[in-house]
Design goal:
The protein is of the alpha+beta class. It has a single domain (about 5-105), classed as HIT-like (HIT family, subunit A), CATH 3.30.428. About 20% of the residues lie in helices and about 20% in strands. The protein has helices spanning about 5-10, 60-75, and strands spanning about 20, 25-30, 35-45, 80-85, 100-105. The longest helix is centred in the middle third of the chain and has 17 residues, at about 60-75. The chain is globular, with a radius of gyration of 14 Å. It starts with a helix and ends in a 9-residue tail after the last strand.
Length: about 110
């Protein structure tokens, strides 16, 4: 996999509005938000898609969900609710081929998404 905008953000080559970081994950505000709160949670390891997760990523994938819930509470979204989205490949709407979890909230979310 070649470099993506997310791998450049992880490397510090492109700035971001960071909301969380540890040795495995980085979370930052989306530059084109689709909701009042729109945060991307990414692994620092460049995993292209959810289909590329392996058994060894089990704890990392679970941690992404736990970090999303923590950030949702910190952003005041937990009581009213929020949406978590992972897109996979072109037909699934994935634009950046570096696994990422969208945390969206701050308004009533419609279904289907749009």
């Amino acid at each position: 996999m070649g470099q993506t905008i997310f791998s450049k953000i992880v490397a510090g080559e492109i700035p971001c509005d960071k909301v969380f970081e540890d040795e495995e994950l980085l979370a930052f505000r989306d530059i084109k938000p689709q909701a009042p709160v729109h945060i991307l949670i990414i692994p620092k390891e460049p995993i292209p898609t959810v289909d590329d997760l392996e058994d060894r990523h089990q704890a990392l994938a679970g941690k992404m969900m736990l970090v999303a819930a923590r950030i949702a509470r910190e952003e005041g979204l937990a009581e009213g609710g929020y949406r978590l989205i992972v897109n996979c490949r072109a037909d699934g709407g994935q634009e950046v081929y570096h696994l990422h979890l969208h945390l969206m909230g701050g308004r009533k979310m419609s279904w289907p998404p749009g």
